[in-house]
Amino acid sequence: MTAFHHPRRHRIAVLVRHGVLPMELGLVHQLFALATDRDGSPLYEVLTCAAPPGPVRTTADFTLHVEHGPDALAEADTVFVPASDEDYDPTPEGVLTEPMAAALARVPAHARIASICTGAFVLAGAGLLDGKRATTHWNAAARFERLFPSVALDPDVLYVDEGTVLTSAGEASGIDLCLHLIRTDHGAAVANDVARRAVVPAHRDGGQAQFIRQAVPEPQRSSTARARAWALEHLDEELTLRALAARESMSVRTFTRRFRDEMGLSPLRWLTRQRVERARQLLEETDLPIDQVAVDAGFGTAASMRQHLRAVLGTSPSAYRSTFHPGPPAAAS
Q1: Could you report the average pLDDT of every consecutive run of 10 residues in the chain (333 residues)?
Q2: What single-letter DSSP state applies at residue 271?
Q3: Which of 42, 54, 208, 227 has a CA positioned 20 to 30 A from the CA of residue 156?
Q4: How far apart are CA 163 and CA 41, in angstroms?
Q5: DSSP H or E segment with residue 47
Q6: Is 94 left (phi over 0), alpha (psi -120 to 50) or beta?
Q7: pLDDT number for residue 326
């Protein structure tokens, strides 16, 4: 995972098409607009563009007037391609229109490009996903696989990060992807602040399932919420499946099944994810030695923490701290 830093404000261009879903366009503007530095200065600027500019039909009862054309893509550091209701029309068969292909050709080589929902069809049509993992909305997965056999589609996850090319599964997972990029660029503290201000979950693992079969427990049916809350208060301790299941008076087998139904991933994977997030917080917000961060986050040793952070974040604890730990505030003049 690579952090992107630029001397000017990071510029995001959202490339919209007729039939754009207003929520997908709005969430990009809203979330990145909430990301600020310690002085309250915006960290991003977001522009909407279309090929060609002008009126763009939405799926709602209003039309967008888009002032910017494809030229905005040439100056972008990150490009988002939201879904369109036209993605569900089988007639184009995955072939981009000439204006869309020409627009995408203007995206700089260094820029990230990300899709929300069936916007992945555009990225695949441009050849940007060939040989890569990707995801899209589960309802469009079968058609996507038929049109783009060279893409390793994973229809079960929320989002996929392939470096400079990222895809997400649907409208709400677009929120997860935006927060993932903010976290990548500026650390967990900034992303958590954005999530808090937007009143959305601060983090859902990209590998979490699109379908959570039991997000709300059925009446009279036990959930795993108490065990999860207890685990978050005891991350620095040795936590076993047996101990977690005991908090809910369940067998390990029942607890594991209920947990996966509710959270979309296994208890141990969830626990590792929480410990990584705790480690990130401590590395960003404290000056604790690396060995102590490892203990407080529940990894036990610096070597174990280093292994897990590298697997999840692609970097070491010391490198992460040097990137995201804020220096002392500048003295007032």
Answers
A1: 57 97 95 93 96 95 96 97 81 78 95 96 95 93 93 90 94 92 92 89 58 44 84 94 93 92 86 92 92 95 94 87 69 36
A2: H
A3: 227
A4: 27
A5: strand 44-50
A6: left
A7: 67
Residue 254: predicted pLDDT: 94
CB under 8 Å to 182, separation ≥6 — which residues? 31, 32, 35, 43, 190, 191, 194
Alpha helices in the chain (DSSP H): 22-33, 98-104, 120-125, 141-147, 171-186, 188-198, 225-233, 241-247, 252-263, 267-285, 290-297, 302-313, 317-324
Question: Furthest-apart CA pair in the chain: how many Å?
Answer: 64
Torsion angles phi and psi, residue 19, rounded to 5 = 85, 20
Instruction: Answer yes or no: pTM beyond 0.85.
Output: no
Residue 132, beta-bridge partner list = none
Q: What is the pLDDT of residue 223?
A: 84
Pairing, β 159-161 against β 165-168? antiparallel
- Short-list 86, 83, 176, CA closest to 123: 83
pLDDT at 33: 96
R_g over Cα of the chain: 21
Cα–Cα distance for residue pair 271/215, rounded to 1 Å: 18
CA dihedral 203, 314, 307, 270 (to 10 degrees): 20
Report the alpha-carbon distance of residue 303 to residue 129 in Å, rounded: 35
Region label for 187, one of left (φ > 0), alpha (ψ between -120 and 50) or beta (otherwise): left
Residue 14 · residue 80 · CB < 8 Å: yes
pLDDT recorded at residue 213:
43
Neighbours of 125 (CB within 10 A): 20
Neighbouring-strand partners of residue 168: 159
Question: What does the pLDDT read at residue 4?
Answer: 43
